[in-house]
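Exercise 7.
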Amino acid sequence: MKLLLENWRKFIAEDYEPVTTLRIFDFDETIAHTRSETRVTAPDGSTATLTNQQEFEEYMNATAAKEGIDAFDAVDSLVEMGYKIDLSDFSIVKDPEEIKVVTDIMKDFPPNSRTFIMTARRGQSLGPIMEYLDEIGIDSSKVRPIATQGESKGDVIATMIGNKIMPDGKSNVHKIEYFEDSTKNIQDVLEKVCRNPKIKDIKPDDFVLTIRQVIQKGDSYRLQDIEC
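Solution. The predicted structure, written as tokens, is:
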């Protein structure tokens, strides 16, 4: 967790730059649709090719349950058990298709805000992601990347809220806008941020979390708002 939040902690110490709003964007199927595949070989020799995020989540959840693994992201635990999980497609941005309903919002950087990309991809993918942002006209120098490396996004966001406490005992973060397609990740953030008694007392009285879920219908996308 310490390494995951290094960029955030560096920023949060900069008292001269007030920030009250965090804008957090998932990458795959939120900023861009990519052609990435995950190829899995189980210890018994059986194989699976997972062609999208939904297939990946369903396979990982079912396999983790079968193996008795209780983890938000089971990849590392399954690898330790002998599963070969080829995530090489996720070290690049493969055949991206921009999701403009999201990127049009991301291109605008409101005052007193900080913009993050938070991806479940491993760290080696961050460079290609930032290069892709520049290619589509988003200034990557204004975006902080975080690879969650198996941590739940809800846990990471809850930690971000608690990283800077003001003299009144409350977090300096008053508003979070979270852009995400995955229902699993959305439910995790609702549980860890909205309903988490451990951070209840440090939330400002006007704290607002707005989740903007990316919904695909055919070749088009829309945003559906979910509030804390």
